[in-house]
């Protein structure tokens, strides 16, 4: 082996670091650091967002997710350092009752919720009216089941003052909820149940609320089929403190017994301002007399309606005369009754008592004399009659002359007076009814099939016997005894044709008028001349001595 092969060349060295100077162990200055030569954005994004209120750094606590749970690394259990979440309301929801929902007092939201709960269709007019003074649902066809929602919604309402439910047929349940509403409502002033046909049972459920309520002043119970039993409930409410001022009770089939019931109630509480008893059966004079006498003591009564009650007779006139003494009476409706004759003359005796009275006597069978007697009262300045209504009452020419004089008076310029047609102005054309009835009676009495009777002589004979005026009953009996074959209808027509002075008891015939017309119609028919009575001869004294 050669020497060349034994000698190897050393491998080439690579330089890793070359010190520049002898102080290579010292660090270079900070300006020469490579990290300081990088461009760094000095603005902090989180700080900028924090200043704008868009970032929250949190509590600074470390989440337990990033902590190693072990005895060697954690001195305290993390759940004690970070307590558990507080109960969000599960315990309260499970163990405590649900808090009640408080609705506004107007009741609009509550009404919709109740309709949704009961499955009833809300009435838009009622919903809007809860914020107004009047809720007008007349002729609306309200479902009686939805009245419960209405009653609950109006319990604390402070806006509605008038609730009109005219002609909406309500059942007993609807009346109950209306009564419940009246126990808490303190704003409602008028409740109109006209034509609702609640009956006695419905009124019984409504009555507790009427007794408690102190804001309701107008109660309309017209056309509700109450009868005398229902009036007993009304009277019970009046006695127990029902604070109603205007009470409407027309079209309820009230009899004379109802007048007695109301009279007993007014002995305890007699403060009604308006009372409507029209279209009933209060035609008994005794009961009406007691009722009107009690109402005359009412210091608050202003309006009384007694129309369409068949009132008639002198005693009714006396009762109205006593009623005129009521100190605040302003409107008295007596239309469509049977007032005439003595009843009119009696009620006029106290007509000067009321102040600014509106007196309605329309559609009464009064004679022109009755109408004239009422009108003559207006000539007196102490009579403070404001309005006199005599519609459909026939008057005569004297009435028109007196009316013209009254309207010229200075204190009667504002007085309203109405009247019906004129009796003497337009005379009917045609046959005279007196001639017709006498011809008919003469034809029947001269019937050849029976024994003929001269009716003229029979009537003249009745006058000759001293009977000048006869009632229709006595006249018929007398003709029957004389054998005159006249039917009752013809006798009544004859009585109307030759009518005597009018009385309240029965029709009468004036035989003097009959005889006068017969003398002009049949002058040849005369009664035979009756011979004068023979003179009584005195016995001579001589003949009397011979007999002895």
Please characterize this protein's 3D structure.
The protein is α/β, with parallel strands linked by helices. Helices cover 37% and strands 8% of the residues. The protein has 22 helices and 13 strands. The protein has helices at residues 3-6, 45-51, 78-81, 90-95, 108-118, 124-129, 147-153, 172-184, 199-212, 227-239, 256-266, 285-295, 314-323, 342-347, 368-377, 397-407, 433-445, 455-464, 472-481, 488-497, 511-521, 541-547, and strands at residues 134-136, 162-164, 190-192, 218-220, 246-248, 274-276, 303-305, 331-333, 355-360, 384-389, 416-418, 469-471, 508-510. The longest helix has 14 residues, at 199-212. The protein is rod-shaped. The N and C termini lie far apart (246 Å).
List descriptors.
single chain; 548 residues; alpha/beta; Leucine-rich repeat, LRR (right-handed beta-alpha superhelix); Arc Repressor Mutant, subunit A; two-stranded antiparallel ribbon; 13 strands; rod-shaped
- Spatial arrangement of strands, main beta sheet: 1-2-3-4-5-6-7-8-9-10-11
At the fourth level of CATH, the homologous superfamily of the domain at 114-370 is: Ribonuclease Inhibitor
Q: Within the CATH hierarchy, at the fold level, what is the topology of the domain at 114-370? A: Leucine-rich repeat, LRR (right-handed beta-alpha superhelix)
Rg calc:
53 Å
Question: Which structural class do the helices and strands define?
Answer: alpha/beta
Distance between the termini: 246 Å
Oligomer: single chain
